[in-house]
Amino acid sequence: MNGTFSFFFHSPFKIVSQHLALRFVAFLLISRGNSEAVTMEYENKLVLAPMVRVGTLPFRLLAADYGADITYAEEIIDHKMIKCERVVNEYIGSTDFVEKGTDNVVFRTCNQEKNRCKDVAAVDINMGCPKSFSVSGGMGAALLTKPDLIHDILTTLRRNMDTPVTCKIRLLKSSQDTVELARRIEKTGVSALAVHGRKVADRPRDPAKWNEIADIVSALSIPVIANGDVFEYDDFERIKVATGASAVMVARGALWNASIFSPKGKIHWEDVKREYVRKSILWDNDVKSTKHTLKEMITHYSCLELPEGKALIKSENLADLAKVYGEEEYFRLVSDNRFSLNGH
């Protein structure tokens, strides 16, 4: 989100909230370029949803390659981001935000993530995650019951940033309650509102309430991004027609097979999986995040008790994963190239 490590958000975040969960919108097809304030275009866009331990650089690039117009990074706690320093990683060609005093990369981007302004295209505030970690810290869905705090957070960010600000919510107890909250959010000046068509108590297997998303779309003038029950490419158009939303966001459908974004249809998940492994090697992805994402893919289509799953679980680094997926030669080529680029 910055070019010289002068984060726009370090001061307002401290003022507004002790704990705030944010996501960077890392990839955008249409903007005004890196030298000016970014503007966001949402009409007819396909969006990769924010997913913890999944939305790292390799997966974002994977989704973009298959056709995603906008990709969200994973959730990052504001205090962790404030403690980072911006490092140009010439070893792999990335820009990293590294936690001071550690080698922990909190956020990584690269020039392939198009049309960014100060490293990201926008900042999104998590106001819908129902998981205990978020809620117990006053983040995520805990904010849904605090409209005044939501207003303070968003207006403070809008006042202090030239990067677009958005947020993502869930449905409240009644459609009227959700519409009232959405209208209040719109008045803060956010660029768009993403809506997950489930309530906090709903389970993933419960059908998303597209009709209630439609109520929100009808009440607002800003773009609404519809999220929930998108598992095939045709679902993008189905939910868009049903809700009237400007854009459509997909989470699990993309996690299981990122080629869902391709209008040509999905390719076999085994091929998607191997391409993800190659991108993880190329961008030196954290092995824990890589394994987590691969496990999610495997458990949807197969099981971890088979040889592949057992080998995956035992893998301790990217070299081990390269062996599991027959990418030893690719791993060697990437390693040799880095070695030569660093003057050896």
UniProtKB/TrEMBL annotation:
Identify the GO cellular component terms for this protein: cytoplasm
**Family annotation (SUPFAM superfamilies):** FMN-linked oxidoreductases (SSF51395)
Cofactor(s) recorded for this entry are:
FMN
Q: Name one GO molecular function term.
A: flavin adenine dinucleotide binding
Keyword Manganese present in the record's keywords: the answer is no
Report the domain of life of the source organism. Eukaryota
Domain DUS-like FMN-binding: start-end pairs: 48-296
Going by the UniProt record, its keywords in alphabetical order are: Flavoprotein, FMN, Oxidoreductase, tRNA processing
- Report the protein name in the record: tRNA-dihydrouridine(20) synthase [NAD(P)+]-like isoform X3
Please name the source species. Answer: Durio zibethinus (Durian)
Q: What is the lineage of its organism?
A: Eukaryota, Viridiplantae, Streptophyta, Embryophyta, Tracheophyta
